[in-house]
Write a structure and sequence with these properties.
Blueprint lengths: L1 E7 L17 E2 L6 H27 L6 H9 L1 H9 L5 E7 L4 E6 L3 E2 H25 L4 H12 L2 H13 L5 E5 L2 E5 L1 H4 L3
Parallel strand pairs: 1-3
Antiparallel strand pairs: 2-7, 3-4, 5-6, 6-7
Helix pairs in contact: 1-5, 2-5, 3-4, 4-5, 4-6
């Protein structure tokens, strides 16, 4: 994997690295408008975060969130994207879009459904679910609980990608990014393996 920082994304899908577009590929049924996508994912993140804070409060007996844990979750935004990137074998491009509250990596690699799901979930597992589960095991670990709650909330876009892959990709399909959308295809029908 080679990570290349590309800076602020200008919103134009044509400025992204061009990927080979497979014949007979099917675009995920997903948002095509980045502004709408950003708004919906930020609202979804807020809802998930509220749910996680309620669970945190119930498990901890009403303890306050640990500020350092929240700070670690916010700082983990860049390592979050790097964990996505390490799931690629080839070049991966890192973009920011801070005005819309987003950072993302973009790779040209074609992935199996399982690989795509693992790539999408990896940072949420490492920074979110594992720390939060440890907090559930020992509710004195409020730093881990706070970090996990916020990191889980920040993963809405990733959960959306996982949902799309699980519900739309048939067994044996490969996924790839093209512009701002994800496509899937069956390797035997396209000649690419």
């Amino acid at each position: 994997m080679k990570l290349i920082y590309k800076g602020e994304f200008d919103g134009n899908p044509e400025s992204l690295p061009h990927n080979e577009h497979m014949p007979n590929a099917t675009m995920f049924k997903e948002f095509t408008d980045m502004k709408k996508f950003a708004i919906v994912m930020n609202v979804a993140s807020g809802i998930i975060l509220i749910i996680m804070i309620v669970i945190f409060s119930l498990v901890s007996g009403g303890a306050s969130l640990n500020f350092i844990g929240v700070l670690i979750a916010v700082i983990s935004m860049v390592p979050h994207e790097i964990l996505h990137a390490v799931c690629f074998k080839k070049e991966v491009y890192f973009y920011t879009n801070l005005r819309q509250g987003m950072m993302f990596v973009y790779g040209k690699e074609h992935m199996s459904k399982a690989h795509f799901v693992i790539m999408s979930m990896m940072p949420n597992l490492v920074f979110g679910f594992i720390p939060f589960i440890l907090f559930l095991i020992n509710n004195d670990w409020t730093l881990l609980g706070s970090m996990g709650a916020f990191a889980i909330g920040m993963g809405a876009g990733d959960y959306y990608n996982v949902f799309n892959a699980i519900t739309q990709m048939p067994k044996g399909a490969k996924a790839y990014m093209y512009g701002m959308n994800t496509y899937w295809y069956m390797p035997q029908s396209s000649g690419k393996s």
